[in-house]
Amino acid sequence: MTESPRIVVLAGGVGGSKFTLGVREALVRRGAPEATVVVNTGDDLWLSGVRLQPDIDSIVYALAGVNDVVRGWGRAGDTERVNHELQAWGAGWPWFTLGDLDLGTHLARTGWLRDGLTPTQVLERMSRRWPLGAHLLPMTDAEVDTIVHVRDGAAMHFQEWWTRHRATLEPTAFENPGIAAAQPAPGVVEAIAAADVVLLAPSNPVVSIGPILAVPGIREALATTSATVVGVSPIIGGRVVRGMADVCLTAIGVETSAAAVAGHYGARRDGGLLDAWLLAEEDAALAPAVEGRGIRSVVCPLWMTDAAATAAIVEHALAAADA
């Protein structure tokens, strides 16, 4: 692999936004081209008449340096006057906060969608405001929101299950209605085919990376690309770093361990996705189990404490690709 590799990242959520910052930092140091980041849109939704794209906005805000790093979502220094007014009218969800600056993003997006732009074109327009240092693509232009089925037979939008109920309602299945008829957004398959390395961010494997892989054509593109596919474990020391990914993994029968998630993705030689897998130092004892699945293991620090630490993780991933 050259010093200027072509990188594609599959990402979603707060973990994906942090990882993308590290990818940008590592590639700037190498003088390499900007990475293409394929972003999960499975947790998108319509609320109060506007289209929300939480994962896209998290990554855009992080790359622009305007994200709220304390809350982990939304804009830094945001206010909530409009949100309070919506709630006074009984509109929206009282447990789902829309910041005023954040709402400006949603209004702009919705207006462009109403004008006939596709989500890909909207994201391209959004990317012009700030120097992001990465090329962002939605996984698809289709609306394939995530529906969660829970133990009592009820079904609800992922955001209600995640934000209102904090994943306390036991899930039995995750569904993306319409995804079987969806197509990859323009440029996604082409970027994967032309890449030197594809990185799976340490995002939730079920509801962040899972919907991307479920778009027809993307998994096939990963299977046939000449790029090396390297994943980064979202599990450190047998625990999720953030969020409730353990609940999601349990629902699909996957243990909350770095080795089990690697097995969930599978080895490329056996029809899976991975050539290599980054394990945290706390999980070094699991390396033989990963190797036994036909996936090259790399043990390194995986705490994304800042962009420099995350860039070091990306360098380990690129070194694994070189190997």
CATH superfamily heading of the domain at 7-44 and 132-143 and 178-322? CofD-like domains
CATH architecture of the domain at 7-44 and 132-143 and 178-322: 3-Layer(aba) Sandwich
Shape: globular
Strand order of the largest sheet: 5-2-1-9-10-13-14
How many DSSP H or I helices?
Answer: 13
The CATH topology annotation of the domain at 7-44 and 132-143 and 178-322 reads as Rossmann fold
What does this structure look like?
The protein is of the alpha/beta class and 323 residues long. It has a domain at 7-44 and 132-143 and 178-322: Rossmann fold (3-Layer(aba) Sandwich), CATH 3.40.50.10680. It has 13 helices and 14 strands. The chain has helices spanning 13-30, 54-64, 81-88, 100-114, 119-126, 158-164, 188-194, 209-214, 218-224, 245-251, 258-265, 287-292, 307-322; strands spanning 7-11, 35-39, 45-47, 50-52, 134-138, 147-150, 155-157, 171-175, 197-200, 228-232, 235-236, 239-240, 276-280, 296-300. The protein has a seven-stranded parallel sheet, sandwiched between helices. The protein has a three-stranded antiparallel sheet with strand order 7-6-8. The chain has a two-stranded antiparallel ribbon with strand order 3-4. A hairpin with a 2-residue loop joins strand 11 (235-236) and strand 12 (239-240). Helix 7 (188-194) runs parallel beside helix 9 (218-224). It is globular and about 60 Å long. The model has no long low-confidence stretch (mean pLDDT 96).
